[in-house]
Amino acid sequence: MRGTTLITGADGYLGRRLAATLLGRDEDDLILTVRAADRAELAVKRERLAAELGPGAMGRARVVAADAGRDGAWADLDPRGVTRIVHAAAVTRFNVDRETARRVNTEGTARLLALAARCDNLQRFALLSTLYAAGRRRGDVHEERLPDAGFVNHYEWSKWAAEEQVLDAAGRLPVSVFRLPTLVAEDDDGRVVQYNAFHNTLKLFYYGLLSLVPGDRGTPLSLATAAFTTAAVARLLDPATGGGVFHICPDPAGTASLGELLDTAFTVFERDEAFRRRGVLRPLPCDRESFQDLLNAADQLRAGPVHQSLSSVSPFAHQLYLPKTFHNPALRAVWPGYAAPDPLALAEATCARLVASRWGRRTEET
Amino acid sequence: MTGVFVDSFVYALGERKVLVQETAEAGRLVSAPSDLESAGFRWHHICEPGTGSYDLARRVTGELAATGRLGRVDAIVYATCLPGNANAGDPGEWERSRDVKHLMDFPAGRLQAEFGLSEAVVFGLNQQACTAMLGSVRLADALLRAEPGWNRVLCVTADRFPEGAKYEQAYNLISDGAAACVVGREPAAFRLVTAHQITNGGLGRAGDDETVGSYFSYTHRLLRETLDRAGMTPADLDWVVTQNTNDKAWQILARLLGVDFGKVFFSSMPDVGHVISADNIVNLVELLATGQVRPGQRLALVMAGFGLNWQCLVLEATDAVRAV
């Protein structure tokens, strides 16, 4: 039966990919909510989405302004006919301040749940969360509700708190929580469109701006592509799939360690003549105290680029001392075609693209 | 272990002692003064307008002469961080005359003449930046090995930043200064155990952040390789006498190397800042003044510099250290 899927944060990195996937896969109409300060910004975003989703898309998709961080964000939206809600709107910066994280990620989820409660025909409410809602927990992490283990940054905390709200509503609403990994590329070819702490850290290493690496070399790092993640979300939105918590990530056997990823990255870097000529050494693993000392010292280097780069990386770096293994049997059970990217092949392809494009500053040679 | 000894450590600083805040107000810093203070810097020393780098070299050599430690030398190794400080000539004369001999007024020759070191030949060392003083000791050792008839080499380093220069490099507060020591065959306060240098010309034009970025991996490698050369481990070191740089740097490096931070000595930093290639000597003089260095103890002198260069000496204190 044809329904209507509401996607929040629809102009975000995952939101717009999910919209494109659903348009190609289902018959649902889409309500795409985007943050826009005024009509002019909404018009710009609407035009951009139309261009990205294709000429026929706007016949099935409606772009509406809604700011997750504001009271009444979705209050004006007609809930009749909404059959699925995918909450992708969020502040995803690791260095987000607590107040912004609370207002947008946590309270924004509560606002959307209020809308969901008014949707008579709702079949699925899906929150896009993060694997790191597990916070400071170490060891095995399963697809289940997580206790408050403390958090290394406000982003993690806010996503955990949002999960709590969604899972609290499980008796009343058909809820799902999708915990996402670190997205490093569009697809297996390693093309990068959006840069995050993963890419920024590699950039510091490539340019010789950081010669210490925080964390334990054995810490597993769950990496994936936007294509894999979007396909998984689309699959999990299938009406035949039940709700619950899902880890959208490679299984433990398909997850590389920090040390393996670094070795792969430097193997790629060392193929680059410019890198070799500069004689940049592989970084030294350092303990938590030393990394904190480095961050403190970097606070005094405000005149240069290292300070800014490190400040974007450091809120996540503490996770590298907290090894976790993310299990995903629930995901694999409902997705027969599950095929996560090979982590080292993905890292190699991504690093090669990053080096060729100098982190997006120049056009890649093809 | 070499059969070469090192002692007679002296240093001189620019005449004007200035607080970091004053230098900031004069527009001669890159960083905020509070950032430099947080890094452990407080005072630094700047030459008066009429004082050149050669004047600083004269002062340290003069101190050796005045205290009877200069004696007869067979060679002078004159090291500068800034290549321009290897010319004592008047740049104005060159501008006026276009005669390049004004670019070849060598300070080592002046020193030889002024102090009556007529037997000494001279060597200039000016492409090792802040590591040049340690490099001069290494070169002196090599010269003594190559010249059986030679007994003593005077090592001098002297640098003064040009008028108008920022007194900050790679987030370090700079002092004008000079240092000297004598390297010889006769037993003296320290035996030279080994010397080691790494140069990475690929980072020769590195910016400040790249210089800082490479600091840990290269300094770590330098120490490991130096100790390997000497058949030593970090635990064999009694002291690590460092350059004056961000006080967090050696807290981190000490952990990486497995060296007790209590052995890391850079006490002069708040008072003198980074005295270009003289830091190790300034700190060694202060360490000796504490009376804590005992015969048999082994010290690593470590320095990183532009170029990029990294150098390390390992010295072993002899019985003569008691008399220093």
From TrEMBL, chain A:
<dbReference type="InterPro" id="IPR057326">
    <property type="entry name" value="KR_dom"/>
</dbReference>
<dbReference type="InterPro" id="IPR036291">
    <property type="entry name" value="NAD(P)-bd_dom_sf"/>
</dbReference>
<dbReference type="Pfam" id="PF07993">
    <property type="entry name" value="NAD_binding_4"/>
</dbReference>
<protein>
    <submittedName>
        <fullName>SDR family oxidoreductase</fullName>
    </submittedName>
</protein>
<dbReference type="InterPro" id="IPR050177">
    <property type="entry name" value="Lipid_A_modif_metabolic_enz"/>
</dbReference>
<dbReference type="InterPro" id="IPR013120">
    <property type="entry name" value="FAR_NAD-bd"/>
</dbReference>
<feature type="domain" description="Ketoreductase">
    <location>
        <begin position="3"/>
        <end position="155"/>
    </location>
</feature>
UniProtKB/TrEMBL annotation, chain B:
<dbReference type="InterPro" id="IPR013747">
    <property type="entry name" value="ACP_syn_III_C"/>
</dbReference>
<dbReference type="InterPro" id="IPR016039">
    <property type="entry name" value="Thiolase-like"/>
</dbReference>
<protein>
    <submittedName>
        <fullName>3-oxoacyl-[acyl-carrier-protein] synthase III C-terminal domain-containing protein</fullName>
    </submittedName>
</protein>
<feature type="domain" description="Beta-ketoacyl-[acyl-carrier-protein] synthase III N-terminal">
    <location>
        <begin position="127"/>
        <end position="201"/>
    </location>
</feature>
<dbReference type="Pfam" id="PF08545">
    <property type="entry name" value="ACP_syn_III"/>
</dbReference>
<keyword id="KW-0012">Acyltransferase</keyword>
<keyword id="KW-0808">Transferase</keyword>
<feature type="domain" description="Beta-ketoacyl-[acyl-carrier-protein] synthase III C-terminal">
    <location>
        <begin position="227"/>
        <end position="316"/>
    </location>
</feature>
<dbReference type="InterPro" id="IPR013751">
    <property type="entry name" value="ACP_syn_III_N"/>
</dbReference>
<dbReference type="Pfam" id="PF08541">
    <property type="entry name" value="ACP_syn_III_C"/>
</dbReference>
<keyword id="KW-0963">Cytoplasm</keyword>
